[in-house]
Amino acid sequence: MRDHDGGSGPETVGSRKNFSWHQRVYYQHTDAAGVVYHGNYLDFMECARTELMQSLGFDLGQLARDQHLLFMVRSAQITYHRPALLNDMLSVGTRLRRLGRARLVFAQEIRRGNVMLASAEVTLACVDARTRRAIGVPEAIRRKLEEVA
Known about the structure:
Layout (H helix, E strand, L loop, with lengths): L7 E6 L2 E9 L13 H18 L4 H8 L1 E12 L8 E11 L3 E10 L2 E14 L10 H10 L1
């Protein structure tokens, strides 16, 4: 279950735009030790990437149905700095680091206020939903992504 508890939107960081999405930590996100289960950080990051695409006017479900287009995670390198705890309000920052022909590389950070909790580099491949083979990022999507890169 994914819960969204807050706003999202772009903010300028240096010369690049950083999209910020907010998530409250609920009991369902925690493990037996009372901290956010490690896999949920990647889930939060996926939500932020999805909300970024939505903010650019792209519904990922509609792209899959109408254009047979998917953005699949190819790799994720994550570093855990500090634990997130029950009821924390998290900010998930997402920045497009590189845009290749069929590849998107995102830098993502999860923070509680000014405290860095996790950072990651997530690489997505643009693929044809029918063949699961890499294809070029469509020009309309590429133009919008370049605006936030």
